[in-house]
Amino acid sequence: MNSTIELLKSHRSIRKFTDQKVPHELLLELIRAGQAAATSNHVQAYTVIHVKNPANREQIAELAGGQTYVATASDFLVFCADMKRPTEAAERIGANVVRGMTEQLLVASVDTALMAQNVVIAAESEGLGICYIGGIRNNPQAVSDLLRLPEHVYPVFGLCLGYPAHEPDVKPRLPVEAVLKEDYYTDDSELVAVFDDAMQTYYGQRKGGNKDTNWSKNLTPLFDSKLRAHMREFLTKRGFGMK
C-alpha cells in the first residue's frame, strides 16, 4: 500500500491535544487543500468559520454537549453549508434565482463534507489530530446566532484541530464485503453479526476506556428516538425550504 492509503486507514478521532499551536500558515494551507476537493458544478457552497474567541469556543463546547476539547484544541473550525454566496452571485448577473430547493441543501451539505475531509487528510498528513463535532447540531440556532450566520447558511459540523496528546486505537470498520456490493443490493446481516463480535472485542480491549458493547448496540440512541427533530424546522427557517 502507498503512504496515502496507509494514512487514510490510520485515522483516529483525537480528543486530547498538546499546548502546541498550529502555525497560521499551515492552517491556511489546510484550507487551500480543502478548497481543492470536488464541488458540484464548481459551486463551492461552503464557508469555514475559524473560532478564535475563547469565550465563544467555551460556549460552543457546552452547546455541543459539553465536549471540552472544542475549547482545548489548538484550533476550532465550523464548516457551514453556504448557499448565500452562490445564489447572490447568480442573482447579480441577472439570474431569476429560486431558493429553498432540496437539491440546494444536498449540494451545499455534500460540498461542505468533501471540503472538510480534504482538510482532515491534509492535517493528518502533517501529524495533526482531528475530531469532528456533529454536536453543534444539538443547538444549531444558538451556534448560528453566535457565529452571526446569515440566512441560507447553516453549520454542518465543527472540527477540532491540533497536535495529539494521546494515541487511541484505530476503530474497526465494517467488512468491505458489507459495503461493496456487485450489481445489486444484497443482505449483509451475517457480516454485521461478525462485525459486532469484532467490535465487542475492540471495545473490551480498547486503550483509554473499555466497555461492554458492540456496533449494533451503539446505534440504539440514534434510532430509538427522534434524533435532533428540530433540524427540519431550523433548516426551513434558514432558507433551506426543501421544496
TrEMBL record:
Keywords on record: Flavoprotein, FMN, NADP, Oxidoreductase
E.C. number: 1.5.1.38
InterPro entries to which the protein is assigned, alphabetical: Flavin_OxRdtase_Frp (IPR016446), Nitroreductase (IPR029479), Nitroreductase-like (IPR000415)
Domain Nitroreductase positions: 9-163
SUPFAM superfamilies in UniProt: FMN-dependent nitroreductase-like
Enzyme class of the recorded protein, top EC level: oxidoreductase
Signal peptide boundaries: none
GO molecular function: FMN reductase (NADPH) activity
Protein name: FMN reductase (NADPH)
Upper lineage: Bacteria, Pseudomonadati, Pseudomonadota, Gammaproteobacteria, Oceanospirillales
Gene that produces this protein: nfrA1
